[in-house]
Amino acid sequence: MPQKTIELLKNGLESNKAEKFRRGNLISLPGEVELITTGDIHGHRRNFERIVSFCDLANNPNRHVMFQEILHGGPEDEEGHCQSYKVLFDAISYKLEFPERVHFILGNHDTAFINNSKVMKGGKEVNDSIRLALDHEFKEASEDIKLTMKQFLFSQALAIRCNNRIWLSHSLPSGRFSEKFDHRIMDRELKINDMVKPGSAYLLTWGRNISQEVLDATAELFDVDIFILGHQPQNQGWGQKGENLIILASDHNHGCLLPIDLSKTYTVEALIDSIIPLASIS
Fold first, then answer.
1. What CATH code would you report for 2-265+272-277?
2. What is the tens place of the pLDDT at every residue in 207-229?
3. Is the pTM of this model over 0.90?
């Protein structure tokens, strides 16, 4: 079983890199696509299953889906350690079934796992917790599993830019750190230093409370109009922050998804009207 898991992660890594719509670290999706956007998953298996059910990719050939931040949260083993990696493995299997239509973008919990840094969620340090769960399940093979997981997470795209001028990333650089962000990271090869503060991948995934001034400047930088992000908790499953920013959450019972027809132009209000509660999906 450990070898099959390692092969799964390696195949997922290669599939991430080989996406036909990806250039560098940016996925650019064309207008004939319907994109199902989601927020943080954090190990919420039922919501992951609802997203897969809604997408029905086998019967909707122009439909794509994006995932972010699957790790940390959700079910625990008998020792109380985090087993969210099982949802990640299932998501990778899903991508391998539909390699050009399932997309992953990097989140801050991913950078924390890559760097072995501590990260809190719900008052608990979850990185140690997930490593202990991996040790418990995979025994002497756990170090190989962890390394290959890091390599898979490192292979994820940083953002998705849609034909209709909508941008999706886990977050955006905020405050004074926006000036330290190097937008050329979208085009060049990622380095491990990009994942730690003040590296640009770190800044892109950890930003909070982004001002309208920064949103406007970043929209001009990326030549987009509207941002859809995750990262910041949303009790009702979504929130509007500023004139051109929607934040989605998919990691609790009020979690949501947002279908977007990339052949259409949207206002923020129209996008909000299109949000679907995951609890409504059987």
1. 3.60.21.10
2. 999 999 999 999 999 999 999 99
3. yes
